[in-house]
Amino acid sequence: MKFKKILLSLGIGLGLTFATTMASAAEYKIGFSQIGAESEWRTANTKDIKEAAKRHDVNLIFSDAQQKQENQIKAIRTFIAQKVDLIGFVPIVETGWDNILREAKRAKIPVLVMDRDLKVSDPSLFVAKIGTDSYTEGKKAFEWIDSFVNKTQLKPRNGRDKINIVVLEGTVGSSAATGRGNGFNDAFNASANKDKFKILASQTGDFTRQKGQEVMESFLKSNRNDIDILFAHNDDMALGAIQAIEAAGLKPGKDIIIISCDGVKGIFQAMIEGKSNVTIECNPLQGDLFFETAKKILKGESVPKSVFVEEGIFEADVAKEVLPTRKY
Ligand code: AHR
Asked: Angle 69-81/98-106 helices, nearest 10 degrees?
């Protein structure tokens, strides 16, 4: 009891928020460090993790890092002190995890990574990663643009000779941004039509609606009539950009074709209103797979190093029909 109190005050002292969501009779105690609440997608991901913990009868200790890697490291250290059975976390950025994961390994606590990828010097520092395939998402994004331009015979506005693309990138150093960027660029470079296109500008909007809007405003300030296509690494930034495009007196989805990743309800609504063109799904509903995999690990069963959740592509013409079926 005394030990628990000390840990609780340690958590408060570190500025972390912990919430035990299940009775202590639960089978396993799992510590989970989430990035924060930067997007509609992330909110859905957190809700799913908490609900899945209840379904799987797991004692979940949840910590919100408020967009700071240092908070994630502190949370993981606290989980180790609490002697949890397993640690789960979403790495906000790819690098910088070796030391804390070595501490977990020394304490013999298995680590299961969710959603984003990480780079470590020793692959045995985490057991497995479940989540999304950012590289493929980025690749699908350019391939969609390529086929859309072919199908519609889209021409550059104002008689230019190239179709200009601007990119709103996700959080710098995150696998979601790097993977989508690399997948997009590789598909661009592999395209037989690559000479038709030019990447006019590319800048981070940190996966948030507000920064997406601000960066799009600055793109439009210098290139109001020179942007044909926007690729936003997530829907939230696209939704922010839509506001900036309208404020500049242009029609999102028409003057500027918009493609983004995630598939949240907000972008479906924008597609129904004709303000966006397509979303490449990135599925946040990873909770069941996470706890199923965690239990296998805790029972000593072997699991694949990497498991991806299923993801689709939704274009504007199906948005109205699909929106009622969306879970996030
Ligand atoms: O890691 C997944 C990405 O992170 C989602 O695309 C984005 O919305 C979130 O913030």
From this structure: 10
- Span from the CA of 279 to the centroid of ligand 1 (angstroms): 13
Residue for token digits 């969609």? 144
Instruction: State how far the alpha carbon of 30 is from the alpha carbons of 27, 79, 87, 110, 164, in Å.
Output: 10, 8, 6, 10, 47
Contacts of residue 38, defined as CB under 8 A and 6 or more positions apart, other chains included, come to 67, 171, 206, 207, 208, 236
Estimate to the nearest angstrom the gap between the alpha carbon of 39 and the chain centroid: 8
pLDDT tens track for 226-267? 999 999 999 999 999 999 999 999 999 999 999 999 999 999
End-to-end CA distance of the chain: 39
Q: 3 by DSSP, 3-state: which?
A: helix
CB 259 within 8 A of CB 305: no
Specify whether the CB–CB gap between 311 and 283 falls below 8 A: yes
Is 116 a pocket residue for ligand 1 (Cβ < 6 Å)?
yes
Model pLDDT, residue 12:
40
Q: 71 and 30 in contact (C-beta within 8 Å)?
A: no
Report the predicted TM-score, pTM, of the whole model to 2 decimal places. Answer: 0.92
| CA of residue 41 to ligand 1 center, whole Å | 6
For residues 94 and 28, give the distance between their C-alpha atoms in angstroms, rounded to a whole number.
28
